[in-house]
């Protein structure tokens, strides 16, 4: 979560932007149907990746635990990137640069003049260009594992197999803007809140993805798992019957 410190007030002394898109001044919810986020997260957790899915995502070049680690990192980057895509679309800004989904190394943006530049930013784009790389850099530390086409393939896969990832990001961001008071100016504070919401939503989705991968060993061989579950239920039934037999009073 993004935490504001004692210096925050100085950052927001010049809170307003020179230009704010009409779409943000008179924001309306998208036509996408509202979803139950908790239910959607459970749906992600229970999603089964087939062997074909894994081969598609990895290019069929790796398997086993290495493939799982590859896909875990790929999904983490993709769900975070989807969140930024939704945020970009809402704010009507372009990504900061090529391979923007990777962010920048810490030493490239941690410099003394950053806060004054944030305060001086006059447009949403200028402000976004300053803050987005710092946030992306924290989240996408495994980005160098992948080529851009792999990221794009992963995003396309999630949009098709788990469209709720994008729906959750969009819905959470829309809720922030719709809570805006009629007199409230859409300024830097609001962009910070949106970024914070994107971050917290990414963490929710990342947690659901972790559960998804924890369940993969079973779901990839569903027949064996169903048989194992059936045998376990039979054992419990037999054990309960035996206990009933032992505790029934004898005449």
Give an overview of the whole structure.
The N terminus is likely disordered. The protein has 2 domains: 213 residues, no CATH class; 30 residues. It has 13 helices and no strands. The protein is mostly helical and 251 residues long. Helix 3 runs parallel beside helix 11, helix 5 runs antiparallel to helix 11 and helix 10 packs antiparallel against helix 11. The N and C termini lie far apart (68 Å).
How many distinct folded domains? Answer: 2
Q: Shape from CA axes?
A: elongated
Estimate the helix proportion, in percent: 55-70%
What is the arithmetic mean of pLDDT?
78
Low-pLDDT stretches are: 1-10
- Rg over alpha carbons: 24 Å
Would you list the SSEs in sequence order as H and E? HHHHHHHHHHHHH
SS element count, helices: 13
Q: What is the rounded distance between the termini? A: 68 Å
User: Count the strands?
Assistant: 0
User: Structural class per helix/strand content?
Assistant: mainly alpha
Beta-strand proportion = under 5%
Sheet bearing the most strands, described? none
Properties at a glance:
2 domains; 251 residues; 66% helix; 0% strand; mainly alpha
How would you summarize this macromolecular structure in one to three sentences?
The protein is mostly helical. The protein has helices at 8-11, 22-25, 37-45, 51-58, 64-91, 106-109, 114-120, 124-139, 148-161, 164-178, 188-214, 216-219, 222-247. The chain is elongated and about 80 Å long.
Please give the structural blueprint.
Elements: H1 8-11, H2 22-25, H3 37-45, H4 51-58, H5 64-91, H6 106-109, H7 114-120, H8 124-139, H9 148-161, H10 164-178, H11 188-214, H12 216-219, H13 222-247
């Amino acid at each position: 979560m993004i935490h504001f410190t004692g210096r925050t007030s100085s950052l927001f002394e010049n809170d307003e932007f020179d230009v704010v898109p009409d779409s943000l001044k008179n924001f309306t919810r998208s036509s996408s149907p509202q979803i139950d986020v908790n239910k959607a997260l459970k749906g992600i957790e229970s999603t089964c990746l087939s062997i074909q899915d894994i081969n598609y995502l990895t290019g069929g070049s790796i398997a086993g635990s290495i493939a799982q680690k590859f896909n875990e990192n790929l999904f983490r980057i993709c769900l975070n990137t989807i969140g930024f895509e939704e945020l970009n679309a809402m704010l009507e800004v372009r990504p900061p640069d090529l391979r923007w989904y990777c962010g920048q190394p810490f030493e490239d943006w941690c410099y003394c003049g950053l806060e004054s530049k944030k305060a001086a930013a006059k447009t949403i784009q200028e402000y976004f260009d300053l803050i987005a790389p710092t946030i992306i850099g924290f989240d996408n530390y495994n980005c160098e594992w992948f080529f851009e086409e792999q990221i794009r393939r992963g995003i396309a896969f999630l949009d098709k197999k788990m469209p709720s990832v994008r729906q959750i990001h969009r819905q959470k961001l829309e809720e922030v803007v719709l809570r805006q008071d009629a007199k409230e100016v859409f300024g830097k504070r609001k962009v910070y809140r949106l970024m914070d919401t994107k971050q917290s939503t990414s963490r929710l989705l990342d947690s659901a993805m972790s559960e998804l991968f924890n369940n993969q060993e079973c779901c990839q061989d569903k027949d064996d798992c169903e048989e194992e579950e059936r045998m376990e239920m039979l054992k419990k039934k037999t054990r309960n019957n035996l206990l009933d037999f032992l505790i029934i009073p004898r005449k």
